Amino acid sequence: MKYTLSVNGKSMTADVSADTPLLWVLRDALGLTGTKYGCGVAACGACTVHLDGHAVRSCQVPVASVARQKVTTIEGLSRDGTHPLQRAWRELDVPQCGYCQAGQLMAAAALLAKTPQPSDAQIDEAMSGNLCRCATYLRIRAGIQRAAQLMATGAPKPSGVSQGSGGGR
Ligand code: FES
Ligand code: FES
User: Fold this and answer.
1) C-alpha to C-alpha distance for 26 and 30, rounded to whole angstroms
2) Which of 36, 38, 39, 93 could pair with 43 as two cysteines, CB 3.0-4.6 Å apart?
3) Whose CA is nearest to atom 3 of ligand 1?
4) What pLDDT is attached to residue 154?
5) pLDDT digits (tens, 9 = 90+) for 103-145
6) Structure pTM?
Protein backbone atom coordinates (compact mmCIF):
# COMPACT_ATOMS: atom_id res chain seq x y z
CA MET A 1 0.00 0.00 0.00
CA LYS A 2 1.19 3.54 -0.69
CA TYR A 3 1.82 5.88 2.23
CA THR A 4 2.56 9.55 1.79
CA LEU A 5 4.55 10.99 4.65
CA SER A 6 5.80 14.45 5.51
CA VAL A 7 9.53 13.91 6.07
CA ASN A 8 11.88 16.81 6.74
CA GLY A 9 9.39 19.18 5.20
CA LYS A 10 8.92 17.18 2.01
CA SER A 11 6.12 14.95 0.92
CA MET A 12 7.46 11.44 0.30
CA THR A 13 5.67 8.26 -0.77
CA ALA A 14 6.57 4.70 0.12
CA ASP A 15 4.90 1.54 -1.12
CA VAL A 16 5.16 -0.74 1.89
CA SER A 17 2.97 -2.91 4.10
CA ALA A 18 1.04 -1.22 6.93
CA ASP A 19 3.10 -2.79 9.68
CA THR A 20 6.48 -1.76 8.25
CA PRO A 21 8.38 0.09 10.96
CA LEU A 22 9.04 3.74 10.16
CA LEU A 23 12.77 3.00 10.56
CA TRP A 24 12.78 0.74 7.51
CA VAL A 25 10.55 3.04 5.51
CA LEU A 26 13.05 5.83 6.11
CA ARG A 27 16.14 3.76 5.43
CA ASP A 28 15.07 1.31 2.74
CA ALA A 29 12.19 2.99 0.94
CA LEU A 30 13.22 6.64 1.21
CA GLY A 31 17.01 6.31 1.35
CA LEU A 32 17.38 8.31 4.55
CA THR A 33 20.09 6.19 6.11
CA GLY A 34 21.14 8.62 8.82
CA THR A 35 18.65 6.97 11.18
CA LYS A 36 20.24 3.82 12.51
CA TYR A 37 19.11 0.32 13.43
CA GLY A 38 20.51 -0.81 16.74
CA CYS A 39 18.25 -3.33 18.42
CA GLY A 40 14.80 -3.27 16.86
CA VAL A 41 13.17 -3.71 20.26
CA ALA A 42 13.04 -0.16 21.68
CA ALA A 43 16.09 -0.76 23.84
CA CYS A 44 18.83 1.45 22.37
CA GLY A 45 17.51 4.70 20.89
CA ALA A 46 19.68 4.52 17.75
CA CYS A 47 16.55 4.86 15.60
CA THR A 48 15.23 8.03 17.30
CA VAL A 49 13.41 10.50 15.05
CA HIS A 50 10.79 13.16 15.75
CA LEU A 51 7.08 12.85 15.16
CA ASP A 52 5.57 16.31 15.44
CA GLY A 53 8.63 17.32 17.46
CA HIS A 54 8.47 14.43 19.92
CA ALA A 55 11.30 11.93 20.06
CA VAL A 56 10.12 8.43 19.14
CA ARG A 57 11.78 5.12 18.38
CA SER A 58 11.16 4.60 14.73
CA CYS A 59 11.73 0.83 14.99
CA GLN A 60 8.51 0.68 17.02
CA VAL A 61 6.29 2.92 14.88
CA PRO A 62 4.29 1.16 12.15
CA VAL A 63 4.11 3.36 9.08
CA ALA A 64 0.31 3.17 9.11
CA SER A 65 0.24 4.98 12.46
CA VAL A 66 2.22 7.99 11.28
CA ALA A 67 -0.61 9.53 9.26
CA ARG A 68 -0.18 13.30 9.00
CA GLN A 69 2.39 13.70 11.72
CA LYS A 70 5.53 15.50 10.64
CA VAL A 71 8.58 13.23 10.60
CA THR A 72 11.97 14.79 11.20
CA THR A 73 15.13 12.72 10.83
CA ILE A 74 18.75 13.55 11.44
CA GLU A 75 18.96 14.72 7.83
CA GLY A 76 16.35 17.38 8.67
CA LEU A 77 17.73 18.58 11.99
CA SER A 78 19.16 21.58 10.10
CA ARG A 79 19.73 22.36 6.48
CA ASP A 80 23.41 23.05 6.86
CA GLY A 81 24.68 21.45 10.06
CA THR A 82 24.31 24.61 12.13
CA HIS A 83 21.81 23.45 14.73
CA PRO A 84 23.33 24.45 18.09
CA LEU A 85 23.65 20.77 18.96
CA GLN A 86 25.58 20.08 15.77
CA ARG A 87 27.83 23.05 16.47
CA ALA A 88 28.38 21.91 20.05
CA TRP A 89 29.00 18.31 18.90
CA ARG A 90 31.76 19.48 16.56
CA GLU A 91 33.23 21.87 19.09
CA LEU A 92 33.48 19.19 21.78
CA ASP A 93 34.24 16.32 19.39
CA VAL A 94 31.44 14.30 20.95
CA PRO A 95 31.19 11.16 18.79
CA GLN A 96 33.53 8.22 18.91
CA CYS A 97 32.44 5.58 16.37
CA GLY A 98 29.37 7.71 15.67
CA TYR A 99 26.83 4.94 15.26
CA CYS A 100 24.51 6.03 18.04
CA GLN A 101 24.91 9.74 17.45
CA ALA A 102 22.00 10.43 15.12
CA GLY A 103 19.66 9.05 17.75
CA GLN A 104 21.46 10.95 20.50
CA LEU A 105 21.13 14.23 18.60
CA MET A 106 17.44 13.74 17.88
CA ALA A 107 16.73 12.89 21.53
CA ALA A 108 18.76 15.90 22.65
CA ALA A 109 16.97 18.21 20.18
CA ALA A 110 13.60 17.14 21.55
CA LEU A 111 14.84 17.76 25.08
CA LEU A 112 16.13 21.27 24.32
CA ALA A 113 12.93 22.19 22.49
CA LYS A 114 11.00 21.42 25.66
CA THR A 115 13.62 22.34 28.25
CA PRO A 116 16.01 24.95 26.86
CA GLN A 117 18.20 25.07 29.97
CA PRO A 118 18.25 21.51 31.31
CA SER A 119 20.09 20.49 34.46
CA ASP A 120 22.53 17.59 34.30
CA ALA A 121 19.88 15.45 36.01
CA GLN A 122 17.28 16.40 33.41
CA ILE A 123 19.74 15.58 30.63
CA ASP A 124 20.59 12.22 32.19
CA GLU A 125 16.92 11.38 32.56
CA ALA A 126 15.96 12.44 29.05
CA MET A 127 18.93 10.67 27.46
CA SER A 128 18.88 7.51 29.58
CA GLY A 129 17.24 5.47 26.84
CA ASN A 130 19.90 6.28 24.26
CA LEU A 131 22.76 3.83 24.59
CA CYS A 132 26.31 4.42 23.43
CA ARG A 133 28.64 1.45 23.26
CA CYS A 134 31.59 3.85 23.08
CA ALA A 135 30.43 5.43 26.36
CA THR A 136 30.50 9.03 25.17
CA TYR A 137 27.90 9.92 27.79
CA LEU A 138 29.89 12.65 29.50
CA ARG A 139 30.65 14.37 26.20
CA ILE A 140 27.01 14.06 25.17
CA ARG A 141 25.93 15.74 28.38
CA ALA A 142 28.56 18.46 27.91
CA GLY A 143 27.44 18.87 24.29
CA ILE A 144 23.85 19.41 25.33
CA GLN A 145 24.89 21.96 27.94
CA ARG A 146 27.01 23.75 25.35
CA ALA A 147 24.16 23.77 22.85
CA ALA A 148 21.85 25.20 25.51
CA GLN A 149 24.44 27.92 26.11
CA LEU A 150 24.69 28.68 22.38
CA MET A 151 20.92 28.93 22.16
CA ALA A 152 20.73 31.19 25.21
CA THR A 153 23.40 33.54 23.95
CA GLY A 154 21.71 34.14 20.66
CA ALA A 155 23.23 31.59 18.35
CA PRO A 156 21.45 31.71 15.01
CA LYS A 157 18.24 29.74 15.14
CA PRO A 158 18.35 26.33 13.54
CA SER A 159 17.59 26.61 9.86
CA GLY A 160 16.03 23.17 9.62
CA VAL A 161 12.46 22.17 9.06
CA SER A 162 11.86 21.50 12.75
CA GLN A 163 13.54 22.35 15.98
CA GLY A 164 15.21 19.80 15.59
CA SER A 165 23.82 16.19 11.31
CA GLY A 166 23.29 14.01 8.74
CA GLY A 167 24.58 10.52 8.91
CA GLY A 168 25.82 7.99 6.47
CA ARG A 169 25.12 4.33 6.35
S1 FES B 1 16.71 0.25 16.93
FE2 FES B 1 14.98 1.27 17.78
S3 FES B 1 15.42 1.43 19.91
FE4 FES B 1 17.08 0.24 19.12
S1 FES C 1 29.75 6.82 19.57
FE2 FES C 1 30.02 4.67 19.23
S3 FES C 1 28.11 3.82 19.90
FE4 FES C 1 28.01 5.88 20.52
Assistant:
1) 5
2) 39
3) 42
4) 80
5) 999 999 999 999 999 999 999 999 999 999 999 999 999 999 9
6) 0.92
Q: Ligand 1 center to residue 131 CA distance, Å? A: 10
Of 25, 50, 76, the residue that ends a domain is 76
Range of the structural domain that residue 128 is part of: 84-152
How far away, in angstroms, is 48 Cα from ligand 1 center?
7
For the chain, how many structural domains are there in total?
A: 2
Q: Is residue 159 part of a domain?
A: no
Ligand 1 atom index nearest CA of 42: 3
**Alpha carbon nearest to ligand 2 atom 4, residue:** 132
**pLDDT tens profile 78-88:** 999 999 999 99
Q: What is the 3-state secondary structure (H, E, C) of 10-58?
A: EEEEEECCCCCEHHHHHHHHCCCCCCCCCCCCCCCCCCEEEECCEEEEH
165 part of a folded domain: no
Q: Which of 47, 131, 132 to mutate to test the pocket of ligand 1 (most atoms within 8 A of CB)?
A: 47
| Cα atoms in the Cβ-side hemisphere of radius 13 Å centred on 3 | 23
Lowest mean pLDDT among 65-69, 105-109, 152-156: 152-156
For residues 67 and 44, membership in a common domain is answered with yes
